[in-house]
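Milestone M4 deliverable, item 7.
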Amino acid sequence: MIINGEKIELKELKFMDYIKEKNLKMEFIALELNGEVISRDKFETLLLKENDKAEIVSFVGGG
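Output delivered:
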């Protein structure tokens, strides 16, 4: 699988495990998986698979 351009050599990965490992805050991210935006309510059960391509975008506030 590829996440944000980084190749990860796993057959499967729970999306929430990845989020926790990277210390990302769920309320400030969006996910595009294989060209489709994924609803936040699916994050808890989402399983990334070997051939998936994911882009995670973090929102940052400022002024």
